[in-house]
Amino acid sequence: MALTYRDDIAILQIIIYFPALISGYFLIWRHGIRQSLGFCYLVIFATLRIIGACCTLAAMHHASTSLYVTIGICSAIGLSPLISLCNSFLSRANKVIQINGGKSLPRACFHALHILTIVGFTSHMSLSIFEHPSSKIKIGAILFVVAWFILFTLFCILYCKRSAIEKGERRTLLAVGLSLPFLAVRLLYSVLMWFLSTSTFNFMDGNPTVELVMSVIEEFAVVIICTGVGLALGVRRYCLYSPLQPAGGGQGCFKP
User: Fold this and answer.
1) DUF7702 domain: which residues (predicted)?
2) Distance between CA atoms of 203 and 183, rounded to whole angstroms?
3) For the domain that residue 88 is a member of, what is the CATH number?
4) Exposed (0-12), middle (13-18) or buried (19+): which is 102, by Cβ within 10 Å?
5) Deepest in the core among 17, 87, 119, 243, taking most CB within 10 A?
6) Rounded to whole angstroms, how far apart are CA atoms 28 and 14?
7) Are 18 and 220 in contact (CB under 8 A)?
């Protein structure tokens, strides 16, 4: 059976995400599990995309309901890990500001964004919902819109405080700043798909070219940007100040 347009996209995804998956595991090993929550999201996302792509290719010869369910779930879960990955980069930058004695943001801001993406994620877990978009999945799409605006707001605030971040760590802000436009286009694609559900924007049989331009390429860009910045970041270890030390030095330090 000849390869279709979607099969070509699946092959391209495997080519891109397999190196990203290996890089993600390397970054977790390099930075340590305690400092690698964001890279865990990278591994999760790359794994899901590879599984979905492999199932797409397998469906060429052995189509089954279970394969299409797997393809559907793996394809739908995209925004949550990518937003969480960018959120972890901002959280790291915020921690550096705190350690350097600057006025950092409350950790609750980042926890709230993380919870929001998880709630949005849980609304994308049923194939029947994809065939007939319900209020549940539309609410999930709205939550991701809110999450993007929160991410953008946190980025703007931390960017204004960048003087309290050493140059090497400012790469985290660069990664998020470059990723935000791509996430916005990817988010727009999801909103149009769930709210319009036309022949162009349709989860099951939409226009593959539109999907490639508004979804697949955007995900490639975010993964490549964040992976590249992750590989460029220095390895850090926490060390806590003694309670007997003066209070002016912050609550902790990064130790190379």
Assistant:
1) 3-234
2) 18
3) 1.20.1070.10
4) middle
5) 87
6) 21
7) no
E strands, 5-60, where?
none
Summarize pLDDT for 120-160 with one digit per residue, the tens.
Answer: 777 656 555 556 666 777 888 899 999 999 999 999 999 99
Question: Tell me, what's the pLDDT at 36?
Answer: 78
Verdict on whether the full-model pTM lies above 0.90: no
Task: For residues 118 and 97, give the distance between their C-alpha atoms in angstroms, rounded to a whole number.
Answer: 26
Per residue in 153-189, pLDDT tens?
999 999 999 999 988 899 999 999 999 999 999 999 9
Nearest to 129 by CA among 94, 54, 77: 77
CB 151 within 8 A of CB 83: yes
Q: 82 is in which domain, residue-wise?
A: 5-239+247-255
Determine the Cα–Cα distance for residues 167 and 154; give it in Å rounded to an integer.
Answer: 19
